[in-house]
Amino acid sequence: MKSALEAAINEWHASVNDGDLERSARAVGDPVVVLGPKGAGPITPEQFAQWVERSGIRLRPRSWHPVGERLMVVEQDATWPQSQEPVRVATVFRVAGGKVTAALRLPDLRQALELAYICREMAATE
After folding, report:
1. Which of 25, 40, 57, 79 stands 20 to 30 A from 18 (CA)?
2. How many CA atoms lie within 13 A of 81 on its CB side?
3. How many helices (DSSP H) and strands (DSSP E) are in the chain?
């Protein structure tokens, strides 16, 4: 049986990879915190759906790394409409209430795990 954390992340991947804008908006919290090459910060579910449409990104999960009850790092192969070959990236996901509330994409697994462990320790000391 999959955990709620895995289920929410699977739904996020499915909605993004299908390019389903309404489903993508439902898969994330309000707001959802994002990090990527063009910046970081909280955005609305509608803005997230717009990003899905604009980017055309597809992310194939390759490995899963639980960091806590609400945090998971997923290493992925990313493709875009203009790319020939997949690029390996890693995303730190935070989940609450069955929705992805943070998707922090980093260039590699090491950096994503470091960030996830920092986030976990910060949350533990609140």
Report:
1. 40
2. 6
3. 4, 6
